[in-house]
Design goal:
Layout: H1 8-27, H2 32-38, H3 50-64, H4 70-77
Helix pairs in contact: 1-3, 1-4, 2-3
């Protein structure tokens, strides 16, 4: 699946969920790599960039094909 195949509404929802999860990780003292790790995403080349973390998480959510709430994602990450 490429970004051209993702619906705008799906991308907006995934980005919103990713932002909320990253905000919770940040609030709890975590780093962008911690947010990516919660989703099982590689983070070796991430250099403290929250924007990139949000984008990667949103892409992962879109590619998974599932719609989920922020609380479900955060509970799985904890």
């Amino acid at each position: 699946m490429t970004m051209q195949n993702v619906k705008s509404a799906e991308w907006d929802h995934a980005t919103g969920v990713a932002r909320q999860v990253c905000a919770r990780v940040f609030r709890d003292g975590g780093a962008p790599s911690d947010a990516l790790e919660a989703f099982g995403l590689a983070h070796e080349d991430l250099h403290g960039n929250w924007r990139e973390a949000v984008d990667r998480i949103a892409q992962a959510l879109c590619h998974s094909g599932t719609t989920t709430s922020t609380n479900q994602v955060y509970q799985q990450a904890a």
